């Protein structure tokens, strides 16, 4: 049996905006396994980002419980959640959130300077195919290159889990493939448990498992017996 990395039990999330209550998550029971690459697929507003933010310790569920391995995240306070994120979680977002005034290497060093057992910034950038761009600034790089710097920054601390929210959402298909290839390489090489949120149904083909979301609930889970590498996917 594979080890469980995340487990959720009956989590809900309700946003109370005053006039209306939005039920972003309506009871989610989910297990994610060590070393797997899971794709979270579903229409806009179905609750994918809300779930990812709760798994990553950026937010709390309204009800239900969430574990990262043996650590119960449910009632952790801000300091403990910050420590959890720092020690275990790498995030990749749709927009790369790089510091414009810092080079690629310096952006990655922001993380490696405070992590307990980081790789060198240059090593992380080589892993994402940017060993030749160490001293370039974000404005001198394409969207796909900037996203790869963001991935280097996320993995340089050797996190156990990598949570990616629409990592190719702002990219054309060619650069999107390069970014997905990098995520696959990291998952293969380091066994980093990886969750990728997407609207793009084709991306499901690279996953070990596909979790379909609809209306704040899991609508189905599929296991891919045969996976495709991103460059083999017909976009
Ligand atoms: N901070 C918030 N305040 C109020 N409502 C919110 C907030 N964040 C999310 N929502 C609502 O919760 C629901 C789920 O949003 P969520 O971002 O999780 O969906 P999603 O599946 O990730 O969508 P997308 O693919 O468009 O990012 C939506 O109806 C959204 O409008």
UniProtKB/TrEMBL annotation:
Presence of keyword Transmembrane: no
SMART domains: AAA
Domain ABC transporter: 6-233
InterPro entries, sorted: AAA+_ATPase, ABC_transporter-like_ATP-bd, ABC_transporter-like_CS, MacB-like_ATP-bd, P-loop_NTPase
Any single GO CC term annotated in Swiss-Prot or TrEMBL for this entry: membrane protein complex
Molecular function via GO: ATP binding; ATP hydrolysis activity; transmembrane transporter activity
Domain of life (superkingdom): Bacteria
Key words, A-Z: ATP-binding, Cell inner membrane, Cell membrane, Membrane, Nucleotide-binding, Transport
UniProt xrefs under Gene3D superfamilies: P-loop containing nucleotide triphosphate hydrolases
Record family assignment: Belongs to the ABC transporter superfamily. Macrolide exporter (TC 3.A.1.122) family.
Protein name: ABC transporter, ATP-binding protein
Organism for this UniProt entry: Roseicyclus elongatus DSM 19469
Taxonomic lineage of the native organism: Bacteria, Pseudomonadati, Pseudomonadota, Alphaproteobacteria, Rhodobacterales
